[in-house]
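Below is the data:
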Amino acid sequence: ALDTLGRRELIAAGDYSSEPRVSPTGTRILYLRLEPGYTPAGYAPMGPDYPVNQLWDMDIATGTPSRLVNVDDGGALAQDAAWIQEVPHTLFAQGNYAGATFGSLTLKRRNNAGAITDVGAVPLPAGGNLLTIDGCLPDLALLTVVNASYDAELHVADLAGGSTLVTSAKTISVLGCVP
């Protein structure tokens, strides 16, 4: 349990590129990072977005990291990833840049055996980005995307494929998921 481990640095500053996510069981941390020297094809730095190409997890008790995904074919990962109910299953989005934003993104699921399957296209508005992925149930996730003006949309993604727009607003924050 987390409360028995004491205070210590698990992931060194600079070794992660997004907010780490603690697993629902409290035993693992999921995080994204950029391999030094890697630049995705078509990437034109601008604004708050920066590329990442690796997804890692770490056993909290031992501090042992494991690379789950490495993109080295010119593509990149979106800035968020999530655990889903069936830990250590994870959700992440992979795509290709078209300038400063992704031209396309595909939501993907990685199971505990390491197999990766495509879930479906992330509903990206033109010039927009994926902000958050929240794995709420074994078969559903919440995706928050923004357009070029940073107006937000919340979508429910069926992990069997497809997504539905739930709402749109200037700002959307997902505080958590309740089954």
The longest strand covers residues 102-110. The two ends are 23 Å apart (CA to CA).
